[in-house]
Write a structure and sequence with these properties.
418 residues, alpha+beta, 8-stranded mixed β-sheet, 4-stranded antiparallel β-sheet, 5 helices
Length: 418
């Protein structure tokens, strides 16, 4: 009996030794959670530091870009907004390295102080809550908080369309404090090892645009209440010319070349030449209206306007050229001043009536031949002048608009370096 009692006591002691560390650790972990959630003297309305400004580090990870609209001058983007700051009131003593950093429970962000960040150039935005609310709040034992939210937003992007569609746009995301001045809170960019303030996901493709670079900027601004902290990231978006080459430039070039076909058609074929002229003019006008349908009604001239106007001038001039040729072919040559004869002409009674009619017909035929020759010479000259003028225009156009687009790319890289 005594042996059984001794054996039972021995087993109890072993179990006590085995389970005591785990129970102690569980108790300590629970005390940490209780300290965070039920902090009696914690006031979430008060900033973390009363004697100095709380530094909030900002970071952005861009998931994807959506539509970029020139008509409304805005763009849509989905991204993670990262914020990190230190709140000494939430510091705790970690019972084990495992609990140096813990993930706070759902809704904890409503119980502690958060930076009142907002987007100055935001038009509309929403949080994600499928399948759970896409927010995360982590706390380090030294009181450092890491707050991440997933946001999809539409931001305004003031566009300069002088070089459209060979343009490069600068679209910003401006993050500012709504109620705290720089004395209470200040912004800084994310500073972590092996991490950058702005990161991009794998899906970086945009419709009609290429993300060539980005830059960071301090946009702090003075208001009536004081200086408010602000940070801005600027995306440099270069428009892809492929769509416009297929839909605008190549068809308009072919239409201009089609208008030159009339220079090789016989002068007397009026229906054919007039039809080609009218067809090319109307097609160019329709194409010009379609190319500018999605653009805002700005007061300056765009690169696409210059191209379509010059193309319209070329096809319209080809139509006018036929009108000139038609008139020249029927215009009699200038009459030479007749010198008075020294001896008065004596009528020759032997001149027969048939000879007189033949002489008049030959004179008319000679007049028509001279007019057609002049018209044909104009057509021959147009066959050379029109293509040369159009080639010269293309050289000037692409030099004036394509080269500055490359300079904009270089300036974006230099701006980021500075």
């Amino acid at each position: 009996m005594e042996l059984n009692v001794g054996a039972v006591c021995f087993v109890v002691r072993i179990l006590f030794v085995l389970f005591q560390p785990a129970e102690q650790l569980k108790t300590k972990s629970k005390s940490v959670q209780d300290t965070l959630v039920n902090l009696k003297n914690y006031q979430k309305q008060d900033p973390p530091s009363a004697d100095r400004a709380t530094i909030v580090q900002l970071g952005i990870r861009v998931n994807s870009f959506y539509s970029i609209n020139e008509g409304t001058m805005d763009y849509m983007v989905s991204f993670y907004l990262r914020q990190k700051w230190n709140d000494p009131r939430l510091a705790y003593k970690s019972p084990s390295p495992r609990y140096d950093t813990i993930k706070l429970g759902h809704g904890t962000w409503t119980q502690i102080w958060l930076p009142d960040t907002f987007f100055r150039n935001e038009k509309k935005a929403n949080f994600h809550d499928v399948t759970v609310e896409n927010r995360m709040l982590r706390l380090n034992c030294n009181g450092t908080l890491w707050y991440v939210t997933k946001i999809s937003a539409t931001f305004s992007c003031p566009m300069e369309l002088q070089n459209y569609p060979l343009d490069t746009q600068k679209c910003p995301i401006t993050i500012e404090s709504f109620g705290y001045t720089s004395d209470t809170m200040s912004f800084d960019w994310w500073q972590e090892e092996n991490e950058v303030p702005v990161e991009f996901g794998l899906n970086r493709q945009l419709p009609q645009f290429t993300l060539i670079d980005h830059s960071l900027k301090d946009c702090s601004q003075n208001y009536t209440a004081g200086l408010y902290p602000c940070r801005e990231v600027i995306f440099f978006l270069q428009r892809d010319i492929g769509f416009f080459l297929i839909q605008v430039y190549v068809p308009s070039i072919l239409i201009v070349i089609l208008s030159w076909v009339s220079f090789w058609i016989n002068i007397e074929s009026s229906p054919a030449r007039v039809s080609i002229g009218l067809l090319t003019v109307l097609t160019t006008t329709t194409m010009s209206a379609g190319a500018r349908a999605s653009l805002p009604r700005v007061s300056y001239i765009k690169a696409i306007d210059v191209w379509m106007i010059i193309c319209l001038i070329f096809v319209f001039t080809s139509l006018i050229e036929y009108a000139i040729v038609n008139v020249m072919s029927r215009k009699p040559p200038p009459k030479k001043k007749a010198t008075p004869p020294a001896v008065p002409a004596v009528p020759q009674p032997e001149v027969e009536k048939k000879d007189l009619c033949k002489c008049i017909k030959d004179s008319k035929k000679s007049t028509e031949t001279d007019g057609k020759k002049r018209a044909q010479n104009i057509d021959k000259l147009s066959r050379q002048c029109f293509p040369l003028a159009f080639i010269l225009f293309n050289i000037i156009y692409w030099t004036a608009y394509a080269i500055p687009a490359q300079w904009a790319h270089s300036s974006a890289t230099e701006e980021k370096a500075t």
